[in-house]
């Protein structure tokens, strides 16, 4: 994948207009942290064919076969209130969901806080990281991994993860998909910046499979079952535990499984 191929026909103002392309890198998120604002302005795309130290949420690895998928980070300099930055995972997963549907025709769903599923299997994960300067957030790095044309998955992931090719039966054009994701991301970012949070969150909820479902919440080493009730406009998941208590949980260190 080259810069020229990505830029050709890309319909965005800023997202993906500055690009750093790599064949192999440790992690696009790690590299993004080293770039200055002058070198990498808002919306810069860092993309690689392969990562040797791809990182996932909760200190997990993100493993992906070379040249088959999309592995990228977008650098953001949010100019909106800090509360809204907590909603970037929702903007991200909604953008990927919409792009997948447009490009592949597959219907996809969002899983709290920021996974995208097709036929209940994970096809995309996101890792948001931030750097701080003088105790305030300087930049946010939105790292996205989409399983596009990979056909084989390790034994332990086989029933939980899939790719767009496996689910649709056809090879997907990675550049077309990336361009659509960048376009949708820019739109969702603008929606978050200029409209009440409830607008984005209502759109996200329409794509979520969660509500009314029994879930297992894994909080650090501790797990329990509950029912998912709603997601609040600040991004917290509202659950009802089996003894009837209502609680709201933050995405941070929590992972969910449908039971
Ligand atoms: C998860 O679901 O745990 C998040 C996975 C995020 C993976 C992407 S791939 C591109 C970017 N660089 C990384 O090292 N991680 C993210």
Note the main attributes of this structure.
alpha+beta; single chain; five-stranded antiparallel β-sheet; globular; binds biotin; 7 helices; BirA Bifunctional Protein, domain 2; seven-stranded mixed β-sheet; SH3 type barrels; 2 domains; about 260 residues
Description of the molecule:
By secondary structure, the protein is α+β, with helices and mostly antiparallel strands. The protein is built from seven helices and twelve strands. Helix 4 (88-104) runs antiparallel to helix 6 (174-194) and helix 4 packs across helix 7. The longest helix has 21 residues, at 174-194. Biotin binds at residues 27-29, 51, 54-57, 60, 62, 71-73, 115, 125-127, 143-145.
How would you briefly describe this protein structure?
The chain is an alpha+beta fold and 259 residues long. The protein is built from seven helices and twelve strands. The strands form two sheets. The protein has a seven-stranded mixed β-sheet with strand order 1-2-3-7-6-5-4, sandwiched between helices. A five-stranded antiparallel β-sheet has the order 11-10-9-8-12, with no helix packed on it.
